[in-house]
Design goal:
The protein is mostly helical. The protein has helices at 13-22, 30-40, 42-49, 84-121, 153-167, 171-178, 185-188, 194-203, 206-216, 221-239, 259-262, 274-288, 294-302; strands at 53-55, 74-78, 141-143, 150-152. Strand 3 (141-143) and strand 4 form a beta hairpin. It is globular, with a radius of gyration of 24 Å.
């Protein structure tokens, strides 16, 4: 194994502010900039000013790709109009966006857990322990691609859910534990996280998947499976304070052929960006709570997006640079 390249040298907050200024970023208040770097961290904020850095181009003017990431390389030079204050506004914008996403995802997660427990628990209160409700292919052993050891999706899931229940301190679970009573489906789901319920839905036999889908107004279990997986990824990014405003997914959201999506002006890339996630979340949220004002809160927040070079509505998946397309959703 070759030796690692040495790390970049340490710089004080004052030196980092000077570095940003030297690269063309406008910093009107150096003291404030130093405080914000101390509060948030240089590299955390660098994810927000990255889009403001000029692209490296070859002699023909084409963007040069990075040999490591295969994405366009950026110069250590900021585009005109880049300011530290606007970058920090973008950071706060992203934070508020995460909070709104978590609010909606919580409603979806809780509702899906309840529906799964009801529709499957109807047949057996202990169905979550019974492989008869699981697609047989999910109960077959397969070799782990990294270790070569035999694994089993159903066994792996059952161990995960058992661990979550054993760690839970929810009152209803604690009562059953102390009373030495078997825990029915509608109790144990209180210990499940989004990943656990998402995987359980994926493993269910089609009959039970379809019953859950009907409750959510969806006619394709494969679509809901992918939606839940992507919403779980988004939920984890939000919960761990990761940047979401311009993130993309390598697994575009399916279901955009539904009539609901036809009116939303989505191009082929929208399903890989935030706009696609917002559309899917709203499809589910309005089914759960028709009086929800969540989409209005999203639209109001999107209208406050800071104006920075490279910080476009297009990278969020919206149809054009006019902002959130509220009229396409029937908003006044």
């Amino acid at each position: 194994m070759s030796a690692l390249a040495p790390p970049k040298p340490f710089k004080s907050y004052a030196e980092l502010v000077a570095l940003l200024r030297g690269r063309g970023m406008a910093v009107t208040d150096a003291g404030r900039a130093e405080r914000k770097l101390g509060q948030v961290g240089y590299y955390r904020l660098s994810g927000y000013w990255y889009v403001c850095r000029a692209l490296c181009r070859d002699e023909q003017g084409r963007a040069v790709l990075c040999s490591t990431t295969r994405r366009p390389r950026r110069e250590d030079r900021f585009l005109a109009g880049t300011s530290f204050d606007k970058v920090f506004e973008l950071y706060l914008f992203d934070k508020r966006l995460r909070l709104l996403m978590l609010d909606a995802i919580e409603r979806i997660e809780v509702h899906v857990r309840s529906v799964v427990a009801h529709e499957v628990g109807y047949h057996d209160p202990l169905a979550y322990q019974d492989s008869r409700f699981i697609n047989p292919k999910q109960t077959r052993n397969f070799p782990d691609r990294h270790t070569g050891r035999q694994r089993n999706a159903w066994s792996d899931w059952l161990q995960r859910q058992n661990d979550q229940v054993s760690r839970s301190r929810e009152d209803c679970i604690d009562w059953h534990r102390k009373a030495n009573k078997a825990m029915p489906f509608w109790v144990v789901v209180e210990a499940w996280d989004f990943g656990t319920v998402s995987k359980y839905f994926e493993m269910l036999k089609g009959t039970y998947q379809n019953r859950v889908c009907q409750r959510l107004g969806i006619n394709n279990a494969a679509v809901l499976k992918t939606w839940l997986q992507e919403l779980n990824i988004l939920r984890n990014r939000c919960a761990h304070h990761a940047r979401i405003w311009n993130q993309t997914t390598s697994n575009p959201l399916p279901g955009l052929s539904d009539p609901y999506f036809h009116t939303l002006g989505m191009d082929a890339g929208a399903g890989s960006r935030l706009y696609g996630l917002i559309a899917v979340i709203w499809f589910l949220v309005r089914r759960i709570g028709p009086s929800s004002q969540w989409l209005h809160e999203i639209a109001n927040l999107i209208a406050t997006k800071p104006d920075l070079p490279g910080c476009t509505f297009a990278v969020m998946g919206f149809p054009d640079e006019s902002g959130f397309p509220g009229k396409l959703f029937g908003m006044n």
